[in-house]
Specification:
The complex is a heterodimer of chains A (165) and B (294). Chain A is built from 5 helices and 5 strands. Chain A has 165 residues and is α+β, with helices and mostly antiparallel strands. Chain A has 2 domains: 3-78, Ubiquitin-like (UB roll) (Roll), CATH 3.10.20.30; 87-156, [2Fe-2S]-binding domain (DNA polymerase, domain 1). Chain A has a 5-stranded mixed beta sheet, with helices on both faces. In chain A, helix 2 (87-94) packs across helix 5. The longest helix of chain A has 14 residues, at 104-117. The model of chain A has no long low-confidence stretch (mean pLDDT 94). Chain B folds into 3 domains: 8-52, Uridine Diphospho-n-acetylenolpyruvylglucosamine Reductase, domain 2, CATH 3.30.43.10; 57-172, Uridine Diphospho-n-acetylenolpyruvylglucosamine Reductase, domain 3 (2-Layer Sandwich), CATH 3.30.465; 177-288, 2-Layer Sandwich (Enolase-like, domain 1). Chain B has 11 helices and 13 strands. Chain B has helices spanning 15-22, 36-41, 77-82, 84-89, 91-97, 103-108, 111-117, 123-130, 231-237, 244-257, 268-288, and strands at residues 8-11, 27-30, 49-52, 62-65, 68-72, 134-139, 142-147, 152-154, 157-158, 165-172, 177-185, 192-203, 212-221. In chain B, strand 2 (27-30), helix 2 (36-41) and strand 3 form a beta-alpha-beta unit. In chain B, helix 9 packs antiparallel against helix 10 (244-257). Chains A and B meet through strand 4 of A and strand 1, helix 2 and helix 6 of B.
Chain lengths: 165, 294
């Protein structure tokens, strides 16, 4: 038994016939081939699968693709605009915000959401925002620096005025 | 790889539509999904039909109506944490919501879902029990109201029947009230090892005497307290001075009468110790937060 699920992902409309029990993360990866979002713990603990559903981040291992029918999804593939990386992506490059990269796409999506709502977050606010996401490489310090770099980059004057990372 | 059990999916477009869909046998509600979908992955739940109620935005309110704070079942945890009126009247909600899961989960998880999941370690169940809240359950023949203290029949079981939907929770507001929630978890975002929520109503306190406790609500979670309530400690507190001595004694009574079990979160004696300490702290903080009415 399948149902038609139509989702706009990063501005492009997709429709697929899928089982109602299919999780959004598998819809994105296996049906649409958008493998930037990672499938991690499967228990909504690790946050590797975070994407946006409409305007808010969600752990896509805990959402059915059917629940996204008729809605808009934004994934890490949608961060880059016109060949230019999003400042949070640049921040992760500049400040060594990743090693293995497994948590990175989820971290980036949460970081983008945080900065959209709080353009100049304190360290504690960044830690709180990513507290539902697990990184096993950097110990979080570089991720926090990366997000702060992106916040400063987005302000007038840019990152040049920043302290060294 | 965890795959949810086979299920049909229906999306409710109105409360009436949801009630009609829910009258089919073996149907469950999905909203935030953070309880039912993991349960389906583990085959702890295998409903035939999931009814998605995320479009029922008429159930997503948080508002003061007369002397009741009304919280719609579809209000998200993040909405409650952001609600100025809830935080002003019942800071216990903000205390608790800061330690429910993590910020991403709180954006989607709902107040109604937390109550209806009836997990014995759930935070808001203890909070609503402490506040003596009322659950409004909607059915095809109208609403019925059930005190939250009678809402849970046991682990993962509530009084909600086929064809019914939790619509809202109403919290009675009274002058001279203060509230607080204290939780110990193994790590950020985890379920409680133990937690206590206090809602105190005080009177007097003029002329240097401590105020008197008019009514006390003490909710406990994760420690086997019946209906999430420390009833003996509440009874002890009523009419006593709102001072440190009363709160310490009440904490000891709460610890004596709950029924924690040893598990991976800790041994029984440790949990009883936490109940005593967290109850005392929550009561003390609740009392300190009582607003003097002018």
């Amino acid at each position: 038994m399948t149902m038609r699920v139509a989702v706009t992902v990063n501005g492009t409309e997709y429709a697929r016939d899928v089982e109602p029990r299919l999780l959004l993360i598998h819809f994105l990866r296996d049906e649409l081939g958008l493998t930037g979002s990672h499938w991690g713990c499967d228990t909504s603990n690790c946050g590797a699968c975070v994407v946006w559903l409409d305007a808010r981040p969600v752990k896509s291992c805990t959402v059915l693709a059917a629940m996204a029918d008729g809605h808009a999804v934004r994934t890490v593939e949608g961060l880059e605009q016109d060949g230019k990386l999003d400042p949070v992506q640049e921040g992760f490059i500049e400040c060594h915000g990743l090693q293995c990269g497994f948590c990175t796409s989820g971290m980036l999506m949460t970081a983008r959401w945080l900065l959209d709502h709080n353009p100049d977050p304190a360290e504690a606010e960044i830690r709180e925002a990513i507290s539902g996401q697990i990184c096993r490489c950097t110990g979080y310090e570089n991720i926090i620096r990366s997000v702060r770099w992106a916040a400063k980059q987005s302000r007038p004057g840019g990152a040049e005025a920043d302290e060294p990372a | 790889m965890q795959v949810p059990s086979h299920v049909e999916y229906e999306r409710a477009t109105s409360v009436e539509h949801a009630l009609s869909l829910l009258s089919r046998p073996d149907t469950r509600v999905v909203a935030g999904g953070h309880s039912i979908i993991p349960m389906m992955k583990l085959r702890l739940a295998q409903p035939e039909v999931l009814v998605d109620i995320n479009e029922l935005t008429e159930l997503a309110f948080i508002r003061l109506a007369g002397d009741q704070l009304c919280i719609g079942a579809l209000a998200r945890h993040a909405d409650l944490l952001d609600s100025a009126v809830a935080g002003e009247l019942f800071p216990i909600f903000h205390d608790a919501e800061r330690v429910v899961a993590d910020p991403i989960v709180r954006l989607w998880g709902t107040v109604g879902g937390s109550l209806c999941q009836a997990d014995p370690s759930e935070d808001l169940s203890a909070v609503f029990a402490a506040a003596r809240a009322i659950a409004v359950i909607r059915g095809q023949h109208g609403d019925r109201v059930v005190p939250v203290r009678e809402f849970h029949l046991g682990p993962y079981e509530t009084v909600i029947g086929p064809g019914e939907l939790l619509a809202e929770v109403r919290v009675p507001v009274a002058p001279g009230t203060g509230s607080a929630y204290e939780k110990v978890a193994r790590r950020v975002g985890d379920w409680s090892v133990a937690a206590a929520g206090a809602v105190l109503r005080l009177s007097g306190g003029l002329g240097g005497d401590p105020p008197v406790i008019v009514s006390a609500g003490l909710g406990l979670t994760a420690v086997g307290a019946e209906h999430f309530v420390a009833a003996e400690a509440e009874e002890f507190l009523r009419g006593r001075a709102a001072d440190s001595e009363s709160f310490t004694a009440a904490g000891a009574i709460a610890a004596e009468h709950c029924h924690p079990v040893a598990d991976q979160r800790g041994p029984e004696d440790y949990k009883r110790h936490l109940v005593a300490e967290l109850s005392t702290r929550a009561l003390r903080r609740a009392a300190a937060r009582v607003r003097v009415e002018t």
